[in-house]
Structures are given as structure tokens and as C-alpha cells.
Protein: Riboflavin biosynthesis protein RibD
Amino acid sequence: WTASGDVNLQPMSDEFYMALALDMARHTQGQTGVNPVVGSVVVREGAVVGMGAHLKRGEGHAEVHALHMAGERAAGSTVYVTLEPCSHYGATPPCSKRLIEAGVSRVVVAFEDPNPQVSGRGIAMLREAGITVETGVMEAEARQLNRKFIKFITTGLPFITLKAASTLDGKIATRTGDSKWVTGDAARQIVHTMRHQHAAILVGVNTVIADNPSLTTRLPVPGLSPIRIIVDSKLRIPEEAKVLQAGEEGDQDTIILTTVDHGNPAKQQLLEAKGIRIIPCGEGERVDLQAGLKQLAVSGIPSILVEGGGAISGSFLAEKMIDEVQLFLAPKLIGSGGKDSFGFIGPDMMNDAITLSNLQVTPAGNDLLITGTPSWE
Ligand code: AOF
Ligand code: ZN
Structure:
């Protein structure tokens, strides 16, 4: 009966209220753009008097919503926030200033804001004003929840999730190229949730040619559809491809990463006339993925779900650009003629294999979902 459903969590502890703030933040994943997900709870004399979450970039921060709900009762309260309150004038005035003005007594923070514009200044402002500040409460959970924001704000590159769905022997299609379907419904539902939680989804042009996917989010209740990015070095994309048409809501964008030398200016013009953004990056035969990712980050894309196929997934792995792997495994075996899920030339020695840590194994219907973090040192 605790906020997180965890029976081991002490009621009326800092963790109890931080878990509630984290829950609110967790439910807004995918909707805050380049901003973090943040939740806040105001507690006074043993009662929750305010709650809030940051819902959308440009709108109020979590603490502001929570303080607004608390009104006069914020004076003398303890405020829980999943991220250090900000100290800068951004789209909104500093939350630390607002907390000081509200007369709160104590602020409990999960972790310091890695945004260089803040990084400790918010906490310092609060302490200077005589407010007791505690940090590090449920820090690991809070960092995990904002891992995309942390990568984006500290490196200027998007967080890259690699998703693949393969047979137990690591194949994404049979020897004839048939791939419908490797995994079952439950796994595919999780993929749509992943799409909702990423700013963009990326595939290679071969996947567009082979499968003509629409790459939108389709869930029992409406989800957010990511921007669609196609890696297409020679602009081979078919004009009638579904990814080039506006989605049902008509609002998702499509971007094509290509080469400077794609040699097809007429096709480029045609695509641009359809409203497709073309980013030339890389000379010669291959798209320079690193350069492309930098440009995408500058355009305000903090996270990308790479959904294949094998060649693209392989390139991202070979170039060490993956932050997280989400691998669905179907209990099927199709033999050596099948298509590899990760098409890269691997190392000579087993010792040099790409190794995943923080491994989590979750059943998804009849399939398994294995989540891990590659270590690139
Ligand atoms: C908070 N509470 O709820 C959020 C914070 O563009 P702005 O003005 O919204 O500022 C965004 C930055 O503010 C973001 O990069 C992060 O450092 C912080 N986000 N801070 O105190 C919140 N969303
Ligand atoms: Zn703020």
C-alpha cells in the first residue's frame, strides 16, 4: 500500500514521497521534449498538500505546479523533487527562487541537475536562504528515469536505444526474407510504448523498401508518434513509402540522413517539396552517422530508437553509438540461412565482444525482452 506498490518501502519516509514524485515523472516520459521528466510533492504536517509534474517544454516546472496547488500551505513544508530545482531563467523563472518565496523549510532532491546552467546552483541558492536541503534520495531510480536527458544535456548527442526482435539464434528474417512476425503481440505492444518514449525512430532505407512500415505509435489509447528518420545514402526511398506520408494525425515529421554525394538532386527536390527534411552528412558512399546525430541533437532530438534492419543496427554497434539495447527474443530457431539481427564484422577474440551490463530479463508474452547497457570504455 505504498506509493510505488513496494511493501518494503517505509510509509511516511522521504522515500515514500519521493516514490510518488518519481511515479508522476515516469508517466510523462515521452512528452517533455528536450526537458527532463520531473515530479514534485509538497508535504506539510504529515499531509500531502501539493503535487505536480513538468508536462511540456516551455510550461511550468514540477515544483511550480506543486507549490501552486499547496498555496499558503507551502510555508513551512517539505518539498520533494526528483531533480535539483533550477536556478536559471529559462522558459520559466528559477524554481529555487519560487521555493524560497513560498517559505518552504526543507527540500529533498533525488539528484543534482546535470544541466551546466544549473549543476548545483539551485541547491546552493536554497541553502543560502536557510532552507535545509537533502540530496541523493532514490538517486539511482531518478537517474535511470532521466538517462536520456542526462546523456543529451551532458554530451550534446541524442540517447540511442537499439531495439531488435530476433529468433533465439539471432535472426530477424528467414532465408527467403520473410519476417512477419518474429515476436508476438505483447512484444509489439512494448515496442509501441518505446516509440512513444523516444523523440525519434530511425531505420535504414532497406527496411523501408522491404517492409514499408509506417513507424507510428499504435497503442490501445493514443500515444505520441516520434519523428521518423531514414538513413538513405543514395536517396533510394520509394516515393510512395508510408513514412513519407503524413500520419493519421498529420503531425509527424520525416527526416532523411543522406550523403553529400547522393547524386540525385531531382529526388531531393521532390522529397523536400513533400516537406521531408534532407540532412546530407558524409561524403562518398556512407552516411556519417556521428555527424548526423549531432545535427539531430541540435534540432532538438534528445533520444532515438534505432529499429533496424540488420545493417543499420550493425553500423550503430560497430561505431559504438548505442546507449541501451532492448532485444526481444522469440523462442524460434530458423537456421544459418536467416538474416542476422546485427550485421557487423565482429571481433576476432571473444574477449573483445560487445558486452552488456545492467541486464534485465522480462517475459513479454511468449517472448523474452533482454535489456542491457553496452560498455564501450
Ligand atoms: C526544475 N523542475 O520540473 C524541470 C527542470 O527550458 P526551461 O526553462 O523549461 O528549462 C529547462 C531546464 O530546466 C532543463 O534543462 C533542466 O535543467 C531544468 N528542468 N528543473 O527545477 C522541472 N523540468
Ligand atoms: Zn525549474
Notes: The mean pLDDT is 94.
